[in-house]
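User: I'm preparing a small set of examples for a lab meeting where we compare how different chains pack in three dimensions. I only have the primary sequence for this one, and I'd like the structure in token form so I can line it up with the others. Please keep the answer compact; I'll paste it straight into my notes.
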Amino acid sequence: MRPLPNSANLTIVEVETDEGIIGYGRTGGSVELINGRLADFLAGEDPMLTDQIWHQLTQTFGGATAALAGIDLALWDIKGKALGVPVWRLLGGAQERVRAYVSFGLGGPNTSMSMVPAYTTEELVEEAMLLVKGSHTKLKTGVGRYEVPNPDADAERMMALREVLGPEVMLMMDAGKNMSFHDALRLCKLCEPYHIEFFEEPVIGNDARQLANLRAQTTIPMAANPSGMRDVYREFLANEIVDFVQPNVAQIGITESKAIADMALAFNRPISNGNGSGPHNMHLQAGMPNGWGVEFHYRHWMEYRTVYQNLPEPADGWLTLPETPGLALDPKPEVVEQFRV
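Assistant: Understood. Below is the structure token output for the 341-residue chain.
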């Protein structure tokens, strides 16, 4: 049996200054909005004033967060290139390398690979072993799948992984905001012996009260990327909802994510994230002293490898940050030209 070909969409934001410096971001926002009103708004602005521009953008276009995030990423890329330093150093340069965890085995109807049937336990274990042989020692997989709404079945999968991989490999699990509270609690109790580093977004909608209740009843740390900006994260931190907060620069920009990371630092809480945007998030994680680690979602990682030049990649469970000015994520011109829509 041969694997089926796959496809993905990636929207790249390009911002050019009057001095010819080009910054690149990525976005899931409206192309029409970016090429229209946002382009008009940016004309004549100083790209070095990232905080000022972010405040003005959110005040004017607040509901279009993904589009604004792409602009913000491109402006930070310009700033780094103009100053000749990588963005992670601009953000504080707290760490020259960060943990890198690989998300795998995520096929199934509630995932970004919804066209692929869910892995069997045997397939999940086989892929995990291949990743470990490839020097990846920190792994995250999905639970709470629609087609297996049974926490006992998911616990058996986690147990199988732990038995095969041994105690040295770090394991995390992610329900993608899909589980009921009672199913999530049962899964936690069943998985506590397997030393799970964190359980990401276990309950439906990242319900804050249920997350806090779940955290109080298990030894497994909780992690979440709640929808919204710093005000939502403030409530999660102040009310001790989770152990890890997960701002994603591709969703809310570097400027907003740094504000959240600073706030989390005041509460002695680590940040982590990556999702399909691991290489973009590496700068936030390395720049901040409470940056715990960056996720490389396997499918999106392969997408990034195809699109970007000299992509920084993890090895032995760690990612060493590049010294390339800016984000170090310039797309390959020939790929952009070939697949431009």
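A couple of notes for your slides: The radius of gyration is 20 Å. The chain has 13 helices and eleven strands.

User: Perfect, thanks.
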